[in-house]
Fold:
Amino acid sequence: MHIKKQRLLTPGPTPLLPKALHAMMDSDVHHRTDDFRKVYSAVLRDLKELMGTANDVLVLVSSGSGAMEAAVQNTLSAGDKVVVCTAGKFGERWVELARAYSLNTVVVEAPYGAAVSPEQLDAALTPDVKAVLIQASESSTGSMHDLEAMGRLVKQTSAIFIVDAITGLGTMPLDIDGWGLDIVVGGSQKAFMVPPGIAFLSISKKAWAMGETSTLPRFYFNLKKELKNALNGESAWTPATSLMFAMAEALTYIKSLGMPKLIENAQLLARATRAAATALGLELFSSAPGNALTAIQAPSGIDSGVIIKEFRNRFGSIIANGQGSMKGQIFRIAHLGYFDFVDLFGMVAELELILAANGHPVEFGKGVAAVQRVYAEVALPRAAALAIS
Structure:
């Protein structure tokens, strides 16, 4: 029996930053003490800095879906008209959430693998619309939306723009204040390299103002209560102390790296993965691909579930299947957070072996060479320039 390490290559949860994992072991503190208040305040301050916003930023103990729900609860009222832009499973989650709170839900849809266009949104933006709900990056398909153009449209109206950026943050540029993104939702288990369990969101003055007339019920996810407590370095409810210690360490690391570098890392890995897929004769699924992950169509005659199982059973590598109607049709490889080119070299080499074992013609090394070329184009000129200087 040979040694086989498990490697997490999914778009969430993602690999953990070792220092963040170690920090969790030092979290044996009470959450109503100055020791913890310092950590809590630092997390809020660093999130605000890294998100690049002057808006308030709050942290919740939940998955990202909890913050999505909080965004709706704290700004809208039953019967309010909202536009939901959906191009995948997580867009459909916005639809379900809006309808659960009896909102007048107008669905603007694009097929799986595509993205809703700014023109589609513009056509749906009537004067009575109170909010627009969207994904920055639709992780079920690997597509991303043009938030800059869409933000300009919503900014001209009285509606607020609520963005699920759970896989968008740290993988794509987001000018929250400049583009008019009124609420931006993130999660700990994506580009931030921490286990699931913490959600966070930025809230603009426009969104807070709408909250003054909101009548939807809320108790645990009461953002005004959270803001009042956050000003004193505390949460309204019992916080996830160990995860907050991990977040503090991860945010320190990202600050040292620089958010633009974290985004660039995802961009380069995405570019290299697509080059490898093309070199191996595979088709990409998305016509509007983002950087958080790459969705690849399984070759004709091969169920993507077989590829997923082969990755796990042969190599201990965990990648993601398609969701909903795309299950068995596509497989998804992540690029966000604590991934590097060495991870990608290995993953593509594994993919070549798996494809060959399942009857897809492969010239070994062709996909890996495509990744190497992208790396060489970016890293080797830098190394040469540094050596000359």
